[in-house]
Amino acid sequence: MAVSAPMSTTGSGKAEGNVAAILLAEDDESVRTFVTRALTHRGHNVVAVHDGNAAIRALEAQTFDLMLTDIIMPGLDGLALAETAGRINPKMTVLMMTGFATARDRATQNGATGAVSEIITKPFSLKQICNAVDAALAGAKPAA
């Protein structure tokens, strides 16, 4: 399932204005729908996929400014996805989400935080996810 809208880009591949091309990889349909709606309402162009393998196909087909991925997904998990995404588009910002402390710990221990702007804890509010995305796109840490 993908949701996307037309986007005008500059020569750098970056969307004009405050609009960003965002790839969302999340296996939970309700979370995927919630986040897609929130970010689309914020004016971003969102492509939403249900797993890491679909995310890789999207990354090979389009350039994104930011990828927001769940850590725990069937098939290719968020850690492997972030590593592969970094080879495909090294300039892309990566945010991770998880509801599991063990997944957060594993990401931190594996050094994923070097390539990842932030790990967002589920459940999160609309404001939290939008602030985290905005901060990551601006190259800053989000306010608590």
Explain this structure.
39% of the residues lie in helices and 17% in strands. The protein is an alpha/beta fold and 144 residues long. It has one domain (21-138): Rossmann fold (3-Layer(aba) Sandwich). A 5-stranded parallel β-sheet has the order 2-1-3-4-5, sandwiched between helices. Helix 1 packs across helix 5 (126-138) and helix 2 (52-61) packs parallel to helix 3 (78-88). It starts with 20 loop residues before the first strand and ends in a 6-residue tail after the last helix.
Count of runs of 4 or more consecutive helical residues: 5
CATH level 4 superfamily: Response regulator
Structural class based on helices, strands and sheet pairing: alpha/beta
Distance between the termini: 31 Å
From N to C, what is the helix and strand string?
Answer: EHEHEHEHEH
Instruction: Could you tell me the CATH topology label.
Output: Rossmann fold
Q: Strand share of the residues?
A: 15-25%
* Shape descriptor: globular
Keywords:
5 strands, disordered N terminus, 39% helix, Rossmann fold, globular, single chain, 5 helices, five-stranded parallel beta sheet, 144 residues, alpha/beta
Layout of strands and helices, then pairs:
Layout: E1 21-25, H1 29-41, E2 45-49, H2 52-61, E3 66-70, H3 78-88, E4 93-98, H4 101-109, E5 118-121, H5 126-138
Helix pairs in contact: 1-5, 2-3
Question: Brief overview, please?
Answer:
Helix content is 39%, strand content 17%.
